Structure formats: structure tokens, C-alpha cells
């Protein structure tokens, strides 16, 4: 699951394109299938979104929650591709994008009535 935060005036107009760009990177680097898109957008009022100095109002936070198993190299490739694609496709400067990957063990995920370590029919690989 991916959660994206930003100032509502900046985030709302680009949500669909941002979702497309994020998912394209997830597919390219992690091999995620087309129908495996779980994105949540949290547009915030300006007074509810504090961010570091040197950033513009386009400052966007992307939290990627995933099952543990991807190598550091794979995770770094995903982060770097996101920075490149968001700058190219959406003109989001890398300084205005913050990306975090939060890993949880497969047994800490629950979906379709089971835990992630019980799922044996995933259409993608976790250990890449």
C-alpha cells in the first residue's frame, strides 16, 4: 500500500498522474501486476502540513508499505526511478519529494482472509 501526502491545492490536480507514475515504477522495478494498485492520497490543508525549509508548496511525501524481502539494491532502484519519473512526468523537483519504504514481515500483512506468509498465489515476487 502506498500513502501520498501533500498540500491539497498541489496534490489534488495531479493525483491520477502521480498514481500512474508511481505504479509504473512499481511495475518496472518490483514486477507488480497492472491490477495491484493500492494508493491512498491524503491531501492536507496548508496549516496541517509542515515540511522542511527549502521546499516548495509542491512538497510531496510518499510512503511505500511492502512485505519484507526486497534487496537494498532493489529498494534503491525503486526510489531512484521514482525521483526520475516524477521529475520528468510531473515536474516535481527531487528536493520536493520524500520517499520512505516501510517493510513489514509477511505475517504482519492481512489480505483476502489470510496473512501474507500464507498467500501462495501472489502474481508477483516479493524476494527480488
TrEMBL record:
Entries under Pfam families matching the protein: Tautomerase_2 (PF14552)
Name of the protein: Tautomerase family protein
